[in-house]
């Protein structure tokens, strides 16, 4: 029976795509490198910043430090006007919380950034725990981020549903022994998500409650 739900953040709870694309391209320009295109950046959303950056042409271990510094400084400028919750997220989180589900976030984002964003979006109070890049020896698709939160909150993997918009999220949840649900409105298509055989794929956050009901039958 599903008693706990752990959510990815970017592309699952909040639409951060424009902020990430604009920040990445501006950071590349600031350090004098040609920026990757929007489609290439979108495919890497969900990975840690370093894992994503090292997939872009022109990035090297020597230039990454300057890129990282520029990225973090610039994201603060773009986030407040370019990040918003997806439809129905606040309402569904509120209902799940009121019904006694344990809720958490499992993300490749840094803790300071995540705390700032969920506070800005008004959803911080719904979560029992957060697992960020600082809590994982290995980032998505490794299971570390989920395993940390399962241990910290005393949750059973087979009672936990991991919800995310990328194959990295789904593989992370599966490797941790959890059930998984993909959301196709984020950064990976329904076809991509289905390729790793999650328990469900939904096109709207509002459909999540029905998925939980079906898994609990």
From the structure above, extract its key features:
217 residues; alpha/beta; 6-stranded parallel sheet; two-stranded antiparallel ribbon; 47% helix; globular
Largest sheet: 6 strands, parallel
Structural class comes to alpha/beta
Strand content: 5-15%
- Helix amount, in percent? 40-55%
Q: What is the helix tally?
A: 10
The residue-averaged pLDDT reads 95
Q: Taking strands numbered 1, 2, ... along the chain, how are they ordered across the largest sheet?
A: 5-4-1-6-7-8
Radius of gyration: 17 Å
- Alpha-carbon distance between the two ends: 8 Å
Order of helices and strands: EEHHHHEHEHEHEHEHEH
Uncertain segments are: none
Shape: globular
Total E-strand runs: 8
Write the layout of secondary structure elements.
Layout: E1 4-7, E2 14-15, H1 17-30, H2 38-44, H3 49-53, H4 61-82, E3 84-85, H5 89-98, E4 102-106, H6 111-121, E5 129-131, H7 144-153, E6 160-164, H8 167-175, E7 179-183, H9 190-194, E8 200-202, H10 208-215
Parallel strand pairs: 1-4, 1-6, 4-5, 6-7, 7-8
Antiparallel strand pairs: 2-3
